[in-house]
């Protein structure tokens, strides 16, 4: 009995250390796999997006390109806005392919000072290949037939593809009236914006014309 008991104790003393050693090795392997494995890498996929080319012609109807009351100083109010009829366009511009037009007029009034100023915008849409001819004809019509010192071109920021600004001064029974006329083209659109009255603002006009050009799209 003592011999068997001793053998059993010896057997148990052998099994326990072996079991613990196996557990240590197993746990070490698991930890090694958890901490020592190389991180997984992912490859970023770059998608190249080709920008949509801008249309060479206006895609909005003329009415949607017209100035809005918010585009002008707060003391201007809307006086009239209307589509331009085909019958109201001269034959030379019909022959150049006139397609549609729109006109809008605003004004400001100070009755106490007998002071009135109006601003009118005309928008005309043509075939792209003819808009330069339209601009040339309108610019030639703007120039005075003689050397009138009160009519002259004024410096003005370039608008659209080509532009010109003109200043005219007239003195009459109602005092001195100044008119600015800005002609410009952008894409297949020709525009004329005029400011006229006893009080005019060159700086405000620059801002208004810039907003009008930005509406052509």
How would you portray this structure in words?
- A 7-stranded antiparallel sheet has the order 1-2-3-7-6-5-4.
- It is an alpha+beta fold.
- 30% of the residues lie in helices and 29% in strands.
- β2 and β3 form a beta hairpin.
- It has a single domain (62-214), classed as 3-Layer(aba) Sandwich (Protein Transport Mog1p, Chain A), CATH 3.40.1000.70.
- The protein is globular.
- 18% of the residues are buried.
List the helices and strands and how they pair.
Blueprint: H1 2-36, E1 77-83, H2 91-95, E2 100-110, E3 115-125, H3 131-142, E4 151-153, E5 162-172, E6 175-186, E7 189-197, H4 202-214
Low-pLDDT residue intervals, each spanning 5 or more residues: 1-22, 24-28, 30-35
CATH architectural grouping: 3-Layer(aba) Sandwich
CATH superfamily, by name, is PknH-like extracellular domain
**Helix/strand/pairing category:** alpha+beta
Could you give a short account of the major beta sheet?
7 strands, antiparallel
Trace the largest sheet across and list its strands. 1-2-3-7-6-5-4
Here the CATH topology equals: Protein Transport Mog1p, Chain A
Number of domains: 1
**CA(first)-CA(last) distance:** 107 Å
Q: How many extended strands? A: 7
Summarize this structure as a short list of keywords or feature phrases:
globular; 217 residues; seven-stranded antiparallel beta sheet; disordered N terminus; alpha+beta; 7 strands
In short:
The protein has helices spanning 2-36, 91-95, 131-142, 202-214; strands spanning 77-83, 100-110, 115-125, 151-153, 162-172, 175-186, 189-197.
């Amino acid at each position: 009995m003592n011999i068997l008991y001793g053998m059993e104790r010896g057997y148990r003393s052998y099994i326990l250390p072996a079991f613990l050693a196996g557990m240590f090795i197993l746990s070490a392997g698991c930890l090694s796999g958890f901490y020592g494995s190389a991180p997984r890498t992912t490859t970023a996929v770059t998608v190249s997006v080709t920008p949509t080319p801008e249309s060479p012609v206006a895609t909005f109807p003329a009415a949607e390109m017209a100035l809005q009351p918010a585009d002008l100083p707060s003391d201007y109010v809307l006086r009239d806005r209307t589509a331009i009829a085909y019958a109201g366009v001269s034959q030379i511009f019909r022959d150049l392919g006139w397609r549609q037009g729109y006109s809008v007029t605003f004004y400001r009034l100070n009755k106490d000072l007998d002071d009135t100023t109006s601003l009118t915008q005309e928008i005309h849409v043509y075939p792209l290949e003819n808009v330069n001819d339209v601009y040339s004809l309108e610019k030639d019509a703007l120039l005075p037939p003689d050397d009138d010192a009160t009519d002259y071109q004024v410096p003005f920021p370039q608008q659209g593809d080509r532009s010109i600004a003109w200043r005219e001064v007239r003195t009459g029974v109602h005092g001195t009236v100044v008119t600015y006329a800005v002609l410009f083209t952008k894409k297949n659109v020709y525009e004329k914006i005029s400011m006229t009255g006893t009080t005019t603002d060159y700086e405000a006009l620059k801002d208004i014309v810039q907003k009008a050009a930005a509406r052509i799209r």
